[in-house]
Amino acid sequence: MMTSSLMPRLVRQGVASVCTSRSQKRIASVRHPSPSVLSITRRFAAPTKPALATQHSNQSPDDILSSFANLDHQRASRTGFPEAVFGQGKTPTQIHSILDSMANNVNDLMEASSIDDAVRLNAVSKAIIATRIDKELYDAVVEIGPLQNGVLEYHETARIISVRANSLLGEDSISNIPTQQPSVVVACAGTTDLPVAEEAAITLSLSGVPVTRIYDCGVAGLHRIISALPKLRDPTVGCVIVCAGMDGALPSVVGGLVDVPVVAIPTSVGYGMSLNGMSALLTMLNSCSPGVGVVNVDNGFGGAVWAMKVIRRK
């Protein structure tokens, strides 16, 4: 007869053996999944890196580019300024491919101009620009490798990548600026406005426009902009770009001191209720100085193109 002391121990052993048996069956089922499970996982599994590489290796650079971009190489002839790349939100591979295609287009135009005198290129049509490129994104573009059709250059403060097409590498860009080309003054209220001001200034310089910079001349120290009057009123100046955040008052002041058009660019700089540039934008839109035009917040590139179209009419 089994004693009462042995009963609990045997029960525990029995339970343990049952649990062990069930665990072994579960492990076996995991190690050897059924054919239906294997077929499902294989169907929906992501392709491996070699498979992806094989896919891209079967595509030409033009095919890859056309899968995400439709470049407008004729924009310069229609509008006076070529298409530019807005880098924010694009992948490094996309930026690399687009810039290389743009450089290839400039090379083709240069070759055509050497054969046909009717094909003429100015500095604007040779400009290749990508804006809103932070340093991390630029480094990722460089890591992909050099362009086939041009050479990259990074302007860190402006957050711009420019490309010099291979056909232009031996060309002096300074000597190609027309001697009678009007210049543009780029002024900014404070040092924190520099990225927007430099976006405008670099865009103009790459397009063959002479630029004079007047920085840190905000209305909190009005004597600074007054002392810059000789530069603002120079007879070669055809337009003035003014970048300002906070109260955005500087364009109105400049507009009352010069006889050329003023392009006002509000920046997203300021405390609290500056509302990321909305306060400066509203001030500029309500300017009491006639002849002040306003572009969007932080749009240095747009302000530069606006100014460029103004001076080309002179």
Structure overview:
By secondary structure, the chain is of the alpha/beta class. Helix content is 46%, strand content 14%. It has helices at 6-31, 35-44, 49-57, 61-66, 75-79, 92-115, 123-126, 135-144, 194-206, 222-227, 229-232, 250-255, 278-285, 300-311, and strands spanning 85-86, 129-131, 150-155, 160-165, 183-188, 211-214, 237-244, 262-266, 292-294. The strands form 2 sheets. The protein has a 5-stranded parallel β-sheet. A 4-stranded mixed β-sheet has the order 1-2-4-3. α9 crosses α14. The termini are far apart. The model is unreliable at 25-35 and 37-55 (pLDDT under 50).
Percentage of β-strand residues: 5-15%
Give the topology string: H per helix, E per strand.
Answer: HHHHHEHHEHEEEHEHHEHEHEH
Q: Number of helical segments? A: 14
Lateral strand order in the biggest sheet? 6-5-7-8-9
Largest sheet: 5 strands, parallel
* Cα-to-Cα separation, first versus last residue: 118 Å
Which helices and strands occur, and which strands form pairs?
Layout (H helix, E strand, L loop, with lengths): L5 H26 L3 H10 L4 H9 L3 H6 L8 H5 L5 E2 L5 H24 L7 H4 L2 E3 L3 H10 L5 E6 L4 E6 L17 E6 L5 H13 L4 E4 L7 H6 L1 H4 L4 E8 L5 H6 L6 E5 L11 H8 L6 E3 L5 H12 L3
Parallel strand pairs: 1-2, 5-6, 5-7, 7-8, 8-9
Antiparallel strand pairs: 2-4, 3-4
Question: Outline of this structure?
Answer:
With 314 residues, the protein is an alpha/beta fold. The protein has helices at residues 6-31, 35-44, 49-57, 61-66, 75-79, 92-115, 123-126, 135-144, 194-206, 222-227, 229-232, 250-255, 278-285, 300-311; strands spanning 85-86, 129-131, 150-155, 160-165, 183-188, 211-214, 237-244, 262-266, 292-294.
